[in-house]
Amino acid sequence: MIQLLSVINPGRLNCELRQIYESSFPEDERRDWVQLLDLLDNKHFKLYEIYHQARFLGFITVWDLEEFSFIEHFAIQANEQGKGYGTQAINQVLSMNSKPMILEVEEPFTETARKRISFYERLNFSVNNQSYFQPPYSLDKNSVKMLLMSYPSKIETSDFERIKAQIHDSVYGYRV
Asked: How far is CA 174 from the centre of its chain?
């Protein structure tokens, strides 16, 4: 059984977390390290380290927003993938939240992106086909065309723009 340990003190981060964070996400799809550490003071943001038998496996970040929770980043160490740890971690996060869950995925243009989408679909997430761009994390980064996936059901078309605006505002500090 895996454990999710909430991190509130940046001095207590597992030393491998930064390497996994920076190697798992392209530069345009992640915050600068200092920006991530600054979020530990935000009451809506949670960073969890994932462990199995005291062995560090990866991490997941979750935003607790008004209507839903949002998984911003999730990564398991490459040599630990395919062993069921990711499934256990997502199931544990889902069980800790009573709200719907939303996350971003890259469009299915690469094998890795298709595998990632399939992973979430096996956990009963649905792909929402409305147009979505992840805003840039900073002025020197680019926006990224993505898809939103949601659990336990698809986002209603009438709700999509409002939900997108809430993600952009709360997670990215991006206001149109």
From this structure: 17
pLDDT in tens, 108-154: 999 999 999 999 999 999 999 999 999 999 999 999 999 999 999 99
Helix residue ranges per DSSP H, the chain = 17-24, 33-38, 85-96, 111-122, 157-170
Report how far residue 112's alpha carbon sits from residue 149's, in angstroms, rounded to the nearest whole number.
Answer: 16
Residue burial 134-167, b: 16+ Cβ < 10 Å; e: rest: bbebeeebeebebbbbbbeebbeeeebeebbebb
Query: 81, 113 in Cβ contact below 8 A?
Result: no
Can you say whether residue 58 is alpha, beta or left, with left for phi > 0 and alpha for psi between -120 and 50 degrees?
left
138 and 150 Cβ atoms separated by less than 8 Å: no
